Amino acid sequence: MSNDLAILDSGLPDYLKSLNVDATTKALMGGSGASQSKRISIKGGVWRLMINGKEVAQNEDRHMNVVIVAASPKVSRTYYAQQYQEGGDVSAPDCWSADGEVPDAKAASPQSKRCVDCPQNVQGSGQGNSRACRYSQRLAVVLANDIGGDVFQLTLPATSIFGEGSAGKWPLQAYAKMLGSKGIPVTAVITEMRFDTNSATPKINFKAIGFLENAQHELAIRQGETDSAKRAITMTVAEADGAKPKAIAAPKPEAPKAEAKPEPTPEPVKRVSKKVEEADAAKPDLSKILADWDD
User: Fold this and answer.
1) Cα gap 278→280, rounded to integer Å
2) Per-residue b/e over 64-103, b at no fewer than 16 CB within 10 Å?
3) Counting Cβ atoms within 10 Å, is residue 143 exposed (0-12), middle (13-18) or buried (19+)?
4) What is the SS3 assignment for 40?
5) Quick one: which H or E segment has residue 97?
6) What is d(CA 227, CA 261) in angstroms, rounded to the nearest whole number?
7) Most buried by CB count within 10 Å: which residue of 132, 158, 243, 291?
8) What are the CA-CA distances from residue 18 to residues 39, 140, 207, 237, 273 (Å)?
């Protein structure tokens, strides 16, 4: 009887080499294979591979070459009531917004009905002159030397998103605008991500260093349509790391209103008409009449 491992290890058919494990296989694999979340962290200015919230590898090179296969359509926002503590457990944010406009329905403690009116969106609400609510944008990326491999989530801070930049040192939005102005899709190029050594906090600059071949570009597009890519651009870092969501505070019940006591009904007062008063005044004094009768 032939060994199935021998058959499978003998080499994949050409059409399978560019495919990933499908949803049916993942469902049958159970929890370990279906729910694995992989992301790249830039904490401390070091590339860190995180799997289900656990750091499994580091790359201390100043740059990393990737292909961006998907991106969240809008810049998101995240607010933590407590300041980050080194070594602390990853926790879900108190409030966040996927579209940067309104709090997410799952947010435990929404700070405002609209992000634009939120007190945490005011300069000075955070440390120094910063905003307590932070901007970020999520990407789904694959390694340039393994386009058909794992899809990673990469969450970028505001310093890596906004700004003008310059050739070879673009923040994300300026980089995309530069490519778009030339009619080049970001999914068709190899992108170098490099740490800005002049920044006190982790900041990434972007640069295009080469084009993908046609087959590679088609593979990158397919990678951007996978469940892994969709999760990468929709899940918060806390969700990707498996942090338990904070309980949504129940609305405070309104204090029962005291029932208004009915005012006592005043006793009816008999009103005497003016004519009756005049008639009573005209009546003779009976006591005087009786006194006269005694004489």
Assistant:
1) 5
2) bbbbbbbbbeebbbbbbeeeeeeeeeeebbbbbbbebebb
3) middle
4) strand
5) strand 95-97
6) 64
7) 132
8) 22, 18, 26, 28, 109
Please report which confidence band the pLDDT of residue 32 belongs to, taking 50, 70 and 90 as the band edges: very low
- Match 């917004």 to its residue by tokens: 97
Domain ranges (residues) in the chain? 13-240
Nearest Cα residue to 133 out of 150, 113, 111, 148: 111
What tokens does 29 get?
């694999």
pTM above the 0.85 mark? no
pLDDT band of 123, cuts 50, 70, 90: confident
Output the six-digit token pair for 291. 């006194």
- Are 42 and 137 a contacting pair, CB within 8 Å? no
The CA-atom distances, in angstroms, between 60 and each of 19, 45, 48, 187, 207 are 31, 8, 9, 25, 19
CA distances from 48 to 40, 55, 92 (A): 6, 7, 20
- For residue range 202-258, list pLDDT tens digits in order: 999 999 999 999 999 999 999 999 999 999 998 888 777 666 666 665 555 565 666
Element (DSSP H or E) covering residue 32: helix 31-34
Residue with tokens 């634009």: 116
The residue to which tokens 């602390």 are assigned: 88
Q: Do the Cβ atoms of 97 and 115 come closer than 8 Å?
A: yes
Do 232 and 151 touch, CB atoms closer than 8 A?
Answer: yes
pLDDT tens-digit readout, 52-107: 888 999 998 999 999 999 999 999 999 998 875 544 556 788 898 988 899 988 88
Distance CA 80, CA 95 (A): 7
Q: Are 71 and 138 in contact (CB under 8 A)?
A: yes
Integer angstrom CA distances of residue 57 from 9, 46, 169: 27, 10, 26
Type and span of the H or E element at 31:
helix 31-34
